[in-house]
Amino acid sequence: MQISKRLTGLTGGGSDGWGLFAKARAMVARGEAVTELTIGEHDIGTDPEILAAMDASARGGHTGYAAVPGTPALRAEIARRVAARTGVPTGPENVLVTPGGQAALFAAHMATCAPGDRALFIDPYYATYPGTLRGAGAEPVAVPARSRDQFQPRPAEIDARAEGARSLLINTPNNPTGVVYSPETLAGIAEVCRARDLWLVSDEVYDTQVWEGRHLSPRSLPGMAERTLVIGSMSKSHAMTGSRIGWIVGPPDAISHLANLATHTTYGVPGFIQDAALHALRQGTRLEEAIAAPFRRRREIALGLLAGQDIVRLIPAGGAMYLMLDIRATGLSGEAFAEALLERHRIAVMPGESFGTCAAGHLRVAMTVEDAAFAEALSTLMEFARECATCDAI
Ligand code: PLP
Fold first, then answer.
1. Which fold has domain 5-45+286-391?
2. What residues does the Aminotransferase class I/classII large domain cover (predicted)?
3. Is the pTM above the cut of 0.70?
4. Which fold has domain 64-285?
5. CA-CA-CA-CA torsion sign (166, 320, 36, 277)
6. Pocket of ligand 1 (CB under 6 A)
7. I need a surface site. Which of 111, 208, 318, 393 has the fewest CB within 10 A?
8. Mean pLDDT along residues 244-248
9. Do domains 5-45+286-391 and 64-285 have the same CATH topology?
10. Ligand 1 mean position to 309 CA, how many Å?
11. CA of 147 relative to ligand 1 center, distance in Å
């Protein structure tokens, strides 16, 4: 029997970019010691307090069908958090609870794009983006963000591709680059969205991981609340990746249509997971800061180690749990460097090429192992880069 083109064409042709990750995992499965700096998964589990809340909720009977748009208490708590942090009036009617940010990204594009509509996104990108847009029936159109611009997208380049587009997807703090979009970049993006009548899908799942300054949600910019769908998640902020819980914040009319979509697709999120998320959010910034602290520390370690050399260039790392390293001075592609680093030193990092075309010659390093092992791996990487740049190490 035939599988629909919608699914067979989901990830486009060729490699899905995760070959190196799979190779490292296979080595680990064979019992080899590999330092894995690949995926965005914390090196801690979900906080025992959150698990206790989950357990109490489930044992208390919240195991049946839960309210599809989200429990009233959780929607209200998310709305309160968003309003307090962004200054934009937000109520439960602005919030849909979803099974993670990924499901929210898909739903947001179902809401904004008709089949065949152009949906803009920025390259380098979180690996699922083009497939998610295709899955929603849209035509993904990449807008380049360049290393020489510190991976800040240029509003004029977005505008140049906006003809016939319905939506623009951005992500700040950014995966894979670790870049936080500047207020000027966001103001320029908002201007293009208003001028071109675009929906802005703003993926803010790393909003609690900002190392300098504050997170700025573009929904708070003039005229943007009515055209922005914010993607949120408990995965990164509360180390709840496996719980699959996130949200969309947007205009009430869009949220009520999205709730209808949820009724016909996911049928919501388990009640005991929602109660655990509610408990976690009620802890406020204390818990969020504790969960972000290891990445903040490791970024400082990296800044110290990378100073005083110019072979490995760090893209200014403003947020998220990743560092983007420009290794073009070695003469190697990101893929060749990452392959060789894994083979010779048992250190796994993601080639920039896994995230589109614009991060070629770069590496994404996830800061997801304990401090000493992280420092050692980064030192080895730098030493290897120096060898590659100065002689024929490969
Ligand atoms: N958006 C970005 C930029 C991500 O990096 C991720 C996960 O790594 C997601 C969305 C999806 O997160 P989740 O579905 O776990 O909430």
1. Aspartate Aminotransferase, domain 1 (3.90.1150)
2. 34-380
3. yes
4. Aspartate Aminotransferase; domain 2 (3.40.640)
5. negative
6. 40, 100-102, 126, 171, 175, 203, 205, 233, 235, 241, 246
7. 393
8. 98
9. no
10. 33
11. 22
